Structures are given as C-alpha cells and as structure tokens.
Amino acid sequence: MARADQMQIPFRIIIEQPVVGVLHSLQSKDDLPLDAKRSSAGEPLAFDFPVRVGPGPKFFGDQVRREGAERRFVYIRIGQMAGDPSSPWSRRMKIDIHDIGAALLEHAAAAGGIVETVVHGTGADGTPACATLKPTARRIAER
Q1: 49 Cβ neighbours under 8 A, 6+ residues apart
Q2: Where do the H-state alpha helices sit in the chain?
Q3: How many Cβ atoms are within 10 Å of 65's Cβ, its own excluded?
Q4: Residue 17: predicted pLDDT
Q5: How far is CA 4 from CA 11, 19, 114, in A?
Q6: Rounded (10°) CA dihedral 102, 104, 105, 111
Q7: SS3 state of residue 107
Q8: 94 in Cβ contact with 56 (< 8 Å)
C-alpha cells in the first residue's frame, strides 16, 4: 500500500496504576526500549507515538507489530526489557490496535485528536501487568 493512501494519526497508550518504581517503555522498531519512564507515586504513564492508517483499516509504523494477516499491536516493555537491569521483572504488555474501529480513526483524523487507549498496569497479584491487556477505555483526546 502506498504511503499516499495512508494518514498519520497520533496514538497514546496510558497505563493507569502502574507498579511504582518499575521502568516501562515503548518497544522501538529495532526492539530497543524507547521513551522509558517510571511512576514515582502511582501516577499514570503515557506513551505517544504516530501510526499510519490505511484503508481497511490497516496499521503501520515503527511501534506497530503484526501477528498474522489482521492482528496489529504495540508492545510496552517492563523492567529489564525496558532497560533496568536491576528489576526483578522482564515482561511486555501487548496492546491490540487492530480492533479500533474506522469511525473512531476517522473522527480522530478529522478532529486532529489523539487515539487514546487506557490499560490497567498492575496485575491481580500486585506485579506489573503483562501479556495481552484489554483496554479499560478507548477515546479521542485533544492534542
């Protein structure tokens, strides 16, 4: 698909209630940590990144990963994987984006907004949440 058929839309992942002091980062195209940050008092962590969206919708970009013909997602690296060798955790969150509807994407593009996906950052056992996380909210936010 030609880039001319794609529009760039800003995306944001917000991790609510992350485990305090644990490093989180986006996973870059070359599998390295990107934009690493940690919560000092339980405040949410936000990661912004661009996504190119084509008809279908289809998703492209440096943070977009693929699995099969349809599934597209973004990884958030945790602990050692985020660049903290002293962390007891080495995990990733997998946050699906392929299930974002065309109407929400079109609204974000028309309004100049950010597609925001919110996930809960602490697992039931009190450790950093990992594996595939279901969004607790998905909305359009202002830039």
Answers
A1: 10, 11, 12, 26, 61, 62, 63, 74
A2: 102-111
A3: 16
A4: 97
A5: 20, 41, 21
A6: 140
A7: helix
A8: no
Assess contact for 5 and 53: CB atoms under 8 A.
Answer: no
Task: Provide the 10 A C-beta neighbour count for residue 45.
Answer: 21
Indicate the average pLDDT of the chain. 94
Contact by Cβ (8 Å): 89, 36: no
SS3 at position 97: coil
Going by C-beta distance under 8 Å and a sequence separation of 6 or more, which residues neighbour residue 29?
Answer: 62, 63
Domain spans of the chain, in order of start: 3-141
- From CA 80, how far away is CA 65, in angstroms rounded? 20
Ordered per-residue pLDDT tens for the chain, 143 residues: 667 789 999 999 999 999 999 999 999 888 878 899 999 999 999 999 999 999 989 999 999 999 999 999 999 999 999 999 999 999 999 999 999 999 999 999 888 999 999 999 999 999 999 999 999 999 999 88
Q: How far apart are CA 24 and CA 45, in angstroms?
A: 8
